[in-house]
Amino acid sequence: MTQSMERVSSFIKSYIHDDEGLLGEIYSSAVAGAVPVIRPETRELLRRQLLLTRPKRILEIGTAVGYSSLFMAGCLS
């Protein structure tokens, strides 16, 4: 089981790229300030899910600095 999870994690990591512009600034600032934001692996998995399902609405509860809300909005625009 662990080996298969490592393969999935490796696959997801292969798609990771740094955020650009304002989103990158928000992420860097949050990490520097120890504000919890989604991990890059989680972000890429979320991106894939959003692109597959194309939801019309998203409700996020507990936005901290708003990083993941802005990320999700960008995926669907």
Give structural notes.
The protein has 77 residues and is mainly alpha-helical. The chain is 62% helix and 0% strand. It is built from four helices and no strands. It has helices at residues 2-13, 21-32, 40-53, 67-76. The radius of gyration is 13 Å and the shape is globular. The N and C termini lie far apart (36 Å).
- Would you count the extended β strands for me? 0
Question: Strand-residue fraction?
Answer: under 5%
Radius of gyration: 13 Å
Largest sheet: none
Helix content: 55-70%
Mean pLDDT: 89
N-to-C span:
36 Å
Described by the principal axes of the CA atoms, the overall outline is: globular
Number of helices: 4
Q: Structural class of the helices, strands and pairings?
A: mainly alpha
Q: Point out poorly predicted stretches.
A: none
Order of helices and strands: HHHH
Structure summarized in a few sentences:
The chain has four helices and no strands. The protein is an all-alpha fold and 77 residues long.
What keyword list fits this structure?
mainly alpha
Write the layout of secondary structure elements.
Blueprint: H1 2-13, H2 21-32, H3 40-53, H4 67-76
Helix pairs in contact: 3-4
